[in-house]
Amino acid sequence: xxxxxxxxxxxxxxxxxxxxxxxxxxxxxxxxxxxxxxxxxxxxxxxxxxxxxxxxxxxxxxxxxxxxxxxxxxxxxxxxxxxxxx
Amino acid sequence: xxxxxxxxxxxxxxxxxxxxxxxxxxxxxxxxxxxxxxxxxxxxxxxxxxxxxxxxxxxxxxxxxxxxxxxxxxxxxxxxxxxxxxxxxxxxxxxxxxxxxxxxxxxxxxxxxxxxxxxxxxxxxxxxxxxxxxxxxxxxxxxxxxxxxxxxxxxxxxxxxxxxxxxxxxxxxxxxxxxxxxxxxxxxxxxxxxxxxxxxxxxxxxxxxxxxxxxxxxxxxxxxxxxxxxxxxxxxxxxxxxxxxxxxxxxxxxxxxxxxxxxxxxxxxxxxxxxxxxxxxxxxxxxxxxxxxxxxxxxxxxxxxxxxxxxxxxxxxxxxxxxxxxxxxxxxxxxxxxxxxxxxxxxxxxxxxxxxxxxxxxxxxxxxxxxxxxxxxxxxxxxxxxxxxxxxxxxxxxxxxxxxxxxxxxxxxxxxxxxxxxxxxxxxxxxxxxxxxxxxxxxxxxxxxxxxxxxxxxxxxxxxxxxxxxxxxxxxxxxxxxxxxxxxxxxxxxxxxxxxxxxxxxxxxxxxxxxxxxxxxxxxxxxxxxxxxxxxxxxxxxxxxxxxxxxxxxxxxxxxxxxxxxxxxxxxxxxxxxxxxxxxxxxxxxxxxxxxxxxxxxxxxxxxxxxxxxxxxxxxxxxxxxxxxxxxxxxxxxxxxxxxxxxxxxxxxxxxxxxxxxxxxxxxxxxxxxxxxxxxxxxxxxxxxxxxxxxxxxxxxxxxxxxxxxxxxxxxxxxxxxxxxxxxxxxxxxxxxxxxxxxxxxxxxxxxxxxxxxxxxxxxxxxxxxxxxxxxxxxxxxxxxxxxxxxxxxxxxxxxxxxxxxxxxxxxxxxxxxxxxxxxxxxxxxxxxxxxxxxxxxxxxxxxxxxxxxxxxxxxxxxxxxxxxxxxxxxxxxxxxxxxxxxxxxxxxxxxxxxxxxxx
Lengths: 86, 904
What we know:
heterodimer; A: Ubiquitin Ligase Nedd4, Chain: W; Ubiquitin Ligase Nedd4, Chain: W; 2 domains; three-stranded antiparallel sheet; 0% helix; 26% strand; 4-hydroxyphenylacetate decarboxylase large subunit (chain B); organic radical (chain B); GRE (chain B); lyase (chain B)
């Protein structure tokens, strides 16, 4: 499994599009920096079985018919249909 | 080296000092009053200061997905379903140490686009954004632009971040969906639908020209359809969300299929109540998502105190998602939540909080009495409230966010004023609000103090301390003048004196009447004021008076673009009266076509994008079952005509009157030629300064315009208690304030005058050629509507106040006066009293608004040269306070040039 970046973890809260806070340490971290091992993966469309990728960033959601455009990076912790892929 | 404007004047022996009443000390002088916030607030403020304005697509994604799914639903229900989906899916973002939470998006300064309103920018910029997104990702984080330059503005793309409109940053992974969503609204957005119908308005081509030439600054129907209004928090504070849902269900049962005596929209009440219920359910889910996140954080946070704070936060959020708040902190959290819900529902700037200290007083009084909270703890919360309010970043078009708003959101908080019976309304909580404004000086909430002779002296002196801190607030607003205006203008809606007394400021200084409602808390009753008006960000926006004068003098031709903006008048303009008459005709031509086009824009908005949540808050929508689009608000006559550049125009007309038409020293042709040649100077854009004092002579200038230019500069100027100029102002105001009633809003109500400039005096000055007062091409107009032009007010501040009050301010929604004072001029307790005396003098003369920049001009110059050293420097511009580093150069230059009073 590839190492997660901070912005793909549940332990990170974004201050802005570039940086945020690591809740575990309270430290300011860069969004795209690699998170330490053991950090929990954040629910995002790209980690959901209903997401079908069309390119690196975009795809569609097949949770409901008809399928609707989606993007892999969207946080999905509030989505009732999110189903994690492992 | 080219000679500057100041040097040219000096060589000619002409004094145009930018200092008055003495000489400023040679050394940089800091502000006298400086206090520190609580440690917790310091930490949170640091997070704000390092945060970039950021957008993402959560809200627009879920809104669009749900909206498109329900294409057979009724418009109001379809919109409510979309809003419910959007609120329900927002990701909660909670930061360590905060006690109050919830925000627009999952960032400190989060925001998002609303392509259902306007999508042309993304359709036009799609390719460029894609290219920027493709390039990004290859750069390292080390290439990050400095935080200091531009504050939180993302002026350039970097790393994996793409700059949108030079203001917001978006992740490169989200650019694709951003553009795709804009395409989904192709031909469906308010902007595009209304444009199809606007073209049917006779004279639409003039409207296009008026917009291109910057005679008018912006359209509001699809940029900021709401705002510059006072919110009302009453219903959720009194009944809780569950109570309102029950109310809606009961009303739905009453109204289903019943016309209620109204054959046009009576049956709509069922759908409206249903829509309100749906949106509330979405907002409740949003709050509960935050509660769940706080609970989760409490469980995983090792620090015991922090864990306990998260748990308490979760409890508060869970409670206010359903019920009336129990404590002060719950009431304040409820207010934060409601505020953000409203500014998420629509593109809004200037959603003002109103008289918050009076609204929250019931909880404050009872918590203090019961020992549940201390005043110091309240102060800490009020300090944190300032961070949350300042973090609200409105998202609209570039021209509006930058050129008009300077990125400001105008969440003005009002203090003072009188209660329903006409007695002073000041309470202890309002003292703490002022104190928090000093300790945590941030742009929001800007504070408006409703001045009345009955307010306590120690309260007013505390306000002087706040002003001396350099925060740019509180602005002083005249309670009596405001009430007089309401009683006249809202007579068509049967306003009462009690409703006039419930007024607050919405936006910069857009005054609005309100209503009184009764809060019941633990067996005790409290009367609280709150907003009850439609927006005032609507109507005819910022007509540039000097630009229309330029077009008058040049037969309708724009001297910058050479376009024929208005039909040629072909008049010889042989008298002052003829110039004045033609100016009025062009003014009215602009107003008429803009009235019709803007009415259409707002009509399209109200049919598909009506406010549901905001309507629920405003009396008496819940009573009548009609939302904003069906005249559900208590007051609907809020559309206005906004002017810009008043004093530059007054000075220009006064100069023409005296030198061309009375004394005949010069011909109008000579003035026109000199204007078109910019009096032998380079343009402001060539010099890259928009201040009059920095302008430079052309190297090839032969001096042939000098005599004329010097004479124009020395002609009578507003701000000196000089009748020759002040009578021009009086004539204008008497005509303008009456003329506004000739235009009618889509709600069939007469319009009124609104005299603020926000930041438009910079943008519109930039597009205007030299003017007959001696102002040079491209330079910024005089600020606001009653501020003097830089360097021209030579007889002291009391003369300035006399000039400003030759007319009756109660004819207008507002007027606006900003004065720059050196910190040493008002130092110590005596200085405070002098400042209060000055304000009192203006209020007693009938002035509506006055506010101060207490700052050393040398500090501003240093800040312009070294912005990285001044991230937290705040200044007052027109009717708002903003971080120096986040305002445009044209406005910065005007502030530097503005006359600095060294003593009075």
